[in-house]
Amino acid sequence: MTKCGVSVLTTGDEDEVSSCYEEHEWGKNRVKGREKEREKKKRGNARKKGASRAGRGDEELEERAERGEKGRRRRKRDNHDGKGRERDEEEQAEEKSGRAQEERDTEEGDAKRKKKNESAKREEKKEDGGKRAVKEKANAVKTKKHKKKSSEEEDVEEEEEEEKEKELRPESLSPEELEKLKEAVDEKKKLIQTLRGKPWPMKKKLSTLRESQEFLEKYEGALGKGKGRRLYAYKVMMTKKWMKFQRDFENFKTACIPWEMKIKEIESHFGSSVASYFIFLRWMYGINMILFGLTFGLVMVPEALMGRPYGSMPRKTVPRADEASAMDFAVLWDFGGYAQYSVLFYGYYNNQRAIGWLKFRMPLSYFLVGVGTVAYSYMVVIRTMARNANESGGGDDNSFNFSWKMFTSWDYLIGNPETADNKFASITTSFKEAILEEQESRKDDNIHLTRFLRVLANFLVMCCLAGSGYLIYFVVRRSQKFALDGLDNHSWWERNEVNMVMSLLGMFCPMLFDVISTLENYHPRIALQWQLGRIFALFLGNLYTFIIALMDEINLKRKEEEIVKFNMTVWEASLYNGTVPENSTAPPVTIHPADVPRGPCWETMVGQEFVRLIISDTMTTYITLLIGDFLRAVLVRFLNYCWCWDLEAGFPSYSEFDVSGNVLGLIFNQGMIWMGAFYAPCLPALNVLRLHVSMYLQCWAVMCCNVPQERVFKASGSNNFYMAMLLVILFLSTLPAIYTIVTIPPSFDCGPFSGKSRMFDVIQETLESDFPAWFSKVFSYASNPGLVLPFLLLMVLAIYYLQSTSKSFKEANVELKKKLQMARKAMTQAAEQQSNNNASPQAQKGEARSFLWWSEIGSSGIHGKKKKKKETFRALCKDLNVLL
Amino acid sequence: MVSPAIALAFLPLVVTLIIRYRYYFVLFYRAFLVRVWQDCATGLSREERAFQYVLTNATPGDPDSILEAFDQWCSKVEFISNIGPKKGKILDRLLMEQSPMTVLELGAHCGYSAVRMARCLPLGARLYSVEMDQRNATIAEKVIRLAGFDDDTVELIVSPSDEVIPRLRSDYGLETVDFVFMDHWKKCYLPDLQLLEGSGLLGKGSMILADNVLFPGAPNFLRYVRKSGLYEWRIHQATLEYIRGIRDGMAELVYQGIK
């Protein structure tokens, strides 16, 4: 207390007395606070020196800065709004920044300070201080502030001892005081809620927030009476715990999303367009997991567990001729030998209606799983598309071009300086481009050249597509010739020619397209879409050439099958002819299943082709990744020490991540899975494996060997574009699968549908034998055209109705938007008028506008057309309406 | 035996590479193949051939016509990595703005940039041009004299730059250098810059202009400049001299001194 008095004397300020006095009553220091104060002690000491000097130096002779500081401190004490004692750091910062404020301070507090500094008027001040003390007693906020103030200038050691005895005891408070406290608490709560809207600098906001929270923490529990108080405190504590738990749980949930952290890291380095690829990859992985679960759980496992074992039937046995090489690695790698005669392929499955003790309907399950995977995929893709469409429906990008750019162009997820630099550069260039576009939107003298170049580029791309299509066609025809010759006569290169050529073309043609697309001079987002479209066309062409070739091969196999069938009957007849005459009662001859002649089983062949394609595709992807990215990065990195030019910045450089190519690779891979999954149940499993590996490999490769794109752009809009492509591919890939299922009769001696004329006969069979008679009757009624056609008609009508309503909603939306704009315009006009009347409140706005106007004029001054200037000004005003 | 179809599948790659790096192929052809061929055919060095052309086509005593003749030869006949007309304009502008009294040029080559700089200098300014190669230096000397600049304006020093810089103060009586133009070996940019710093020749506001920092490129130099904090720096984007499609830049550093 004595020290407190001393400090008061040195500063010559009476307020301090009152606050020190209050400390006895209100003392509420906690250990934390004391520690803080101890830290502040040093600073406090320094200030004390200044203050004492001020006392000595007296009146207005002090240095200006010190005066400012003092004045501010006093003003704070004088201020009764209680909105937060500014923290020391802030004070210092302010001192640095605000000369002007200091002046204001001195002006404001001039009279008071002088009064205070003059010893003659001490009495008056005492009165003043006393009054204030009373007031502050009522208001807890001030108490705290004052205590802090005084303690800054005190010797802390002693204070500590004193304050140990002074504990806050709410019971000791009178009801009015409690009421006041409650009010203060409410006020603080309100403050915290409305803090976001306050026109304060961020620093002040933060400090105020922290302070109010501290205050609330301290006093919230103290309110209420007796038992109620404890209960209240308990409640508050529990809410806090609960909130903390919720937050932790959220974190935990995020941690549980697979690869989330990896993707976030990549996003921070490469921007959202690269991250969108990885999110897409993860989404695809999820879908494939479900497809895999379906095929694995309902087809492969039941067959493996409950079906007849390997070697029990001809279709489940490796034929005698192949037995010697069935376990060779080369054969297994081509999915021949034992791999071919296993649950992995269609041909292994038996046409037994029910298997095992569960009476599992194997053929039915096989068929339904095949249909179900496709149906599920359709459902998921369409649902995701709809959801994305909803999300992206909000904005209209065309009006307020500059505002959109201004406020939305930064990618807040970037956390890497290099990417941030790139992003910064790209934003600046986009601004420049946009301004230029605004200025020269009408006069585009080189439009013919641009058009010509675009047409030329498309022509070149078409040539390229035709060339690649012809090459694949040529290769496929050649491979058929090889197949007729017998594959063993040809080298490995010739046998795998089709896959190799397809993979290579799929790899190199996009690069060529990329080079060609530089001719066109599009915005990168549009360029990306063109690029995607072209690669899409290329891949599609390749895939369909492949499928057509496969169809040819299926027809060949079916012809072969006819011959085999005929031979079989001959062979059987000969078998029986040979045995029957001997002894009619003898047991029927047992022939080892490996020796039985068998048909070519085109379904297994198709499945094998697809599996091989997937494998070779995966291999090429990985090898490209390793050579094209990793090896290149290593070479560039380490050869740069001894090379005659800068490898990193110049010629080979590091590779960029190719979003479009990777996305399309993924999509087409999925298309192949959908196409082939019916004939090779192992495909989803393979794909899951592939996606899993490529997730890790690509994440690693991106982070280790790629550099961020030079023009980073957001990809939020392109997600639905990917989805649309996926949907198209889904449709296009189910088309041939459904065609083969519906039109081609299954092989006679392999697969779950052998012996039936069509694969879908299994449904009819189930209906007839597994369901009661009335059900099949109902089904037959329901499926007759008289019912189906009206139903289809109804559906079409419903779709039409929904579409038209959605269209009208959209129109209404546009109308509303227009109205909103009108309202805004009216408002701003009113505001402008007001600003003309009284300039000061609107001064800032006007200033901003005029500044922008002048800057705009400055930029357009080169082109110097008054009309244009006016237009840009108008556009600018429109933008500003949104801003302000 | 690899089948022809697979080989054909590599065609797009080849085409892509050719299109994408066409300028580099052109550069390789002009700067290397033509040079080797001409060296064998004429028995003269490239610089001597250039000098012959200039001698026959330019007006003596007129720096502009000499520069034009050089540009003509370098873009039409053969390739010499002079600073070129486009980047030369930037150099001219900087010199006009700066009007330095002492200029140091590292790497005179055949005197093109020396002539270019000397004609932009204010009266009484002096250009010290350093060239390592004796043969190039004689040609540079001839070119400079042809342009009409005497010993007082341009002094040619035939010695490696790392030997000259420490001796500049003692042997040539230089106090500070106002402007340094670097166009010699890209590997020497960084050590020479550090030598200049160490010898105390750089005063506050001294400007250093380094050519070809993006291609062939001096990454270490740029990295050092970025990190050292001694300079205000910017890069003038341009293209490589006499070849359009290759991006290049000149780094402009202004020495700020140790704060």
From TrEMBL, chain A:
Transmembrane segment boundaries: 283-306, 363-382, 455-476, 497-519, 531-551, 721-742, 778-802
GO cellular component, as recorded: plasma membrane
Comp. bias regions, Acidic residues: 152-164
InterPro entries (UniProt xref): TMC, TMC_dom
UniProt KW NAD keyword: no
Key words, A-Z: Membrane, Transmembrane, Transmembrane helix
Composition skew (Basic residues), residue ranges: 39-51
Residues of the TMC domain: 601-716
Bias (Basic and acidic residues): 21-38, 78-87, 94-103, 117-139
Gene Ontology MF, one: mechanosensitive monoatomic ion channel activity
Protein's UniProt name: Transmembrane channel-like protein
Organism (species): Myripristis murdjan
Source organism phylogeny: Eukaryota, Metazoa, Chordata, Craniata, Vertebrata
Gene: TMC1
